[in-house]
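Following up on my earlier thread - several people asked me to post the actual chain instead of describing it. Fair enough. Here it is, all 232 residues.
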Amino acid sequence: MKPPWGLAVNRWGKGGPGKRVPLPEANAALNPPGRQPGVLRIIFPRMDLHEAIHTRRSIKQFTSRPVSRGEIERFLDAAIQAPNHRMTQPWRFYVLGPEARRKYGEALGARKAKKVEDPEAARAVAEKVAAQEAGLPAMIAVTQTVDQNPEIREEDYAAIMMAVQNLLLAAHAEGLGTHVRSGAVMDDPRARAAVGVPEGERIVALIQLGEPAAAPEKKARRRAADVTTWVP
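Reply from S.P.:
Thanks for posting it. Predicted structure:
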C-alpha cells in the first residue's frame, strides 16, 4: 500500500514547509538521535479524499507509538461534521485509558472464554484478550443517545456511522490506522460499565486506533456498477 505523504515543519511553523517525504519516514524524524530540545518536528499530512477512501484498511496490528489527545480531538472534530437529519447530534464519544480498556477486554475475554471447554485454556483466552485491549495505543467507544421515536433512532444510527467513517478517514489521512469493532458485547453490562455508558445510551462501535505496524492487502469488492440500478 502506498504510504501517505506528509510535510515536515519546525515546531513554530517557521521557515515554511520541509521536504515532501513518506509519512513513516517523516514520523521517524520526530525524535532523531541527538535531537536538541525544542527542535521537534510536526507532520501535516496531505492526502486526496479519494485516495484516503480507497487506501483505508482495517488495522489489527499497531506499533507502540502513543496517540496524543490532540490527534484524537482532531479526529472527533471531523467525526461530528457528519450529516445529521434534524441536527439531533446523537453521538457521544468515550476515550478509554488503559484501565478502562482492560476492563472492556475482561468483558470481551469472558465472552470468548465461554466457547473454550478446558478451564485453564479458557482462563488463558480471557487474560490474553484483556491484555490485548489494555495494550492498544488508543480506543474510542462511540455511543448513541436512544430516542423513543423509532424513526429518529434509525436516522440517528445512520448519522453516527457516517461520523465513524469521518473519524476513520481523518485518522488515515494523518498516517494512523483504525479497526472498528461491534457485536453483542456492546450490550454486555460489563462492557457498558467499563466504558461508563449511562442509561439512555447504547454502544454502537468501538474504534481501535494507532500507528499501523502492518496493513492488509486490499480485498476484492463487487464493482459499484454491479450493485447499481439507474431508474428512469
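Residues 150-173 form the longest helix (24 residues). That should answer part of your original question.
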